Amino acid sequence: AESKTSFENISVSNGDFNSSPNSSTLDSNPTGWSLIKESSTAKSGIINVNDSKFKSNYSSYFLNADENPSKMNVDYDDKILMINARNSTTGSEVPAVQGYKSESITLEPYSYYTFSILTKTINNAKASIYLTGLDEEVTNVSFESFEAEVWTEYEFFISTGTTKETVNIELWLGKKENT
Length: 179
Known about the structure:
This protein has one helix at about 50-55, and strands spanning about 5, 35, 45-50, 80-85, 100, 105, 110-120, 125-130, 140-145, 150-160, 165-175. By secondary structure, the protein is mainly β. Strands 2, 5, 6, 8, 9 and 11 form a six-stranded antiparallel beta sheet that branches. Strands 1-7-10 form a three-stranded mixed beta sheet, with no helix packed on it. A two-stranded antiparallel sheet has the order 3-4. The protein is globular.
């Protein structure tokens, strides 16, 4: 059998969360992503962190005016995925675990992939990132229960074997096994 190794470029559907049809208010049903655990108290969806749009809408996100997560730098768009455990603008965080799952991503055989995810947490929140669907022999496919008070990049490096793999990215407030 011929062994052919290559570097593949793929894109994640709405991976930058910029495909939201709504330019200012909370979009709780992001294109390319599905809610995988719904907490009755979590406020989640795509928000716009542009200063003027955030100032007009922060209360609908259950954030305070001084809690704009902003964007990592000027090269990024103004939309991010937010999962917030707060039950009102003036309320405190309540126990909430919630996640979003990307559409399926197909990985070709004998290929290398890098998945990069930018994450920021506020108010001592814990986040988790998972790459699911890989062969059970693969290890280190999650970053669990971390805080990132500044925008931080988390990366998964994947090398596929002899068959195609289908994976998903999961982004969580809390840990998916810790409800």
